[in-house]
């Protein structure tokens, strides 16, 4: 899952159940309530909490002038 392709402010439901424990995108949502409802629905059938709801935030390196910053020189 690449955060570069997801718009900031998007709510996601992710799982960490892959072999390398990397986040796996399960679904995208317009708001927190929808994402949390989907997370809770999926966690009800799971033995342990393996689904999480989270929001895509701007990577901090972009705000601080990192290589991917819009202000960085090509």
Mind explaining what this structure looks like?
This protein has two helices and three strands. The chain is an alpha+beta fold and 74 residues long. The chain has one domain (3-59). β1 (11-15) and β2 (24-29) form a beta hairpin. The model has no long low-confidence stretch (mean pLDDT 77).
Secondary-structure map with pairings?
Blueprint: E1 11-15, E2 24-29, H1 32-44, E3 51-55, H2 60-63
Antiparallel strand pairs: 1-2, 1-3
Termini Cα gap: 25 Å
Residues in β-strands, percent: 15-25%
Arithmetic mean pLDDT? 77
Q: What is the number of domains? A: 1
Shape: flat
Segments where pLDDT lies below 50 for 5+ residues?
Answer: none
Which structural category fits the helices and strands? alpha+beta
Please state the CA-atom Rg, rounded to the nearest Å. Answer: 15 Å
Order of helices and strands: EEHEH
**What percent of the residues sit in helical stretches (DSSP H or I)?**
10-25%
In total, the number of strands is 3
In the sheet with the most strands, the strands line up as: 2-1-3
Main β-sheet description: 3 strands, antiparallel
The DSSP helix count reads: 2
